[in-house]
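Protein modeling request. Please complete all fields; requests missing the sequence field cannot be processed.
Requester role: graduate student
Desired output: 3D structure, C-alpha cell encoding
Chains: 1
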Amino acid sequence: MSLIEGPDNISVAGIGRMGQGIAISFAYAGFPVSLIDTEQREAEAFQTLVSRCREDIQAELDSLRNNGLLTQGQDTQIQDRIDFVAHSNAPTALSKASFIFEAVLEVLEVKQSTYNWLSEFAPPEAIIASTTSTMLADTLADFVSNPARFTNAHWLNPAYLMPLVEVSPSNKTSEETVNQLKQLLEQIGKVPVVCAASPGFIVSRLQALVLNEAARLAEEGVATPEDIDKAVKVGFGIRYATLGPLEFIDWGGGDILYNASNYLANNIDTARFTPPKIVEQNMETNRNGLRDGEGFYNYKNIDITAYRNEKLSTFIGLLKHLDLTPKAEIPFRNKEG
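Delivered output (337 residues):
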C-alpha cells in the first residue's frame, strides 16, 4: 500500500478538539482529510455542528496567520481541504481511507463501538490509529478486525503545532504498520517516537512527576507558584529543549545524579527520589556518560568536543531567541563606588 492512494486517504473519526487539530495538521501539509462525525444526528444538527467546528478551526488558523505561519488566503485553502462527513455518509469516506485516526471519547465502550464500526467499512489494509493518552494498544487492538494494522498514536495538544507523536504499538501490531505510520507523520513534519504499550507512554509519565512535584513545592511553601514556574521556564525546562533527560545524565555524569538522588531520598522521600537500578548499574560499571565514553549512549566513536560545541551552540541560539543570554560589558563599580 502506498502512502498516497487518492484524494480521500486520510480520515479522522471524531470531530472534537483533537480530531480538529489532527485535521488541521494534515490539511496544513496539503493533504485532503475527511473529518468524520461518529455520532448519528439530524441533518440540521450536523450542519450546526459543522458551522461551530469551522469557526473553531478558523480561530486556530487566524492564530497561525497572526504569528507568521500562514499567509493571507492559505487559511481558506486549509479549510477547503477539510471535508466534514456526517455519520450516514461515513461508509463512503472510510472505504477509501488508507489511514484512519480515531479521536473519540476516552471511554472504553465508546472506543469499542467505534472500532467495530470502523472495521465494518474501512479497507482491511487501512491503518487505524487511536489518539488515546490513557488506554493501551494491547487492549484496543482486540476491538479491530486485523489487529496487525492497529496502533496507538498519541498526539499532543495543540496537535497542529506540537511536533511529537508517540506511536505505541500493541503486541499484535505489524512492523509494516509502524513504519508506514511513522513515514506519514514525518511527511507532515511530525516527529514520531515509538514506545511500548505502557501506562502514560513517555510524555505523560515524565509530565505527571514534574507537575506533581511542582505542586508539592507550592504546597510546602518552598517557593511561590510564580517563582516555581519561573525556575522551570528559564532553568529546568529550557535545558531539555537542547538535551534530553538521558543525554543530560550522561552530560553531567550518572554518579552525580545517583548521589543527588540519594540525598533527596534521605531528606525528603525515599519512594520519590531513590535512583533507579540502571543509574547505579551504570555507575558501578564505569558508564557514567561523556567522561567515560559511555552511559545511556555510546560516545566512543564520536568527537566529544564537536558534540559539546554543537549542543552549546543550539542552547545559546535558544537563549538568544528568548533574550536570556548573559548581559555583557556591564560596568563594574570601583572600590569607592
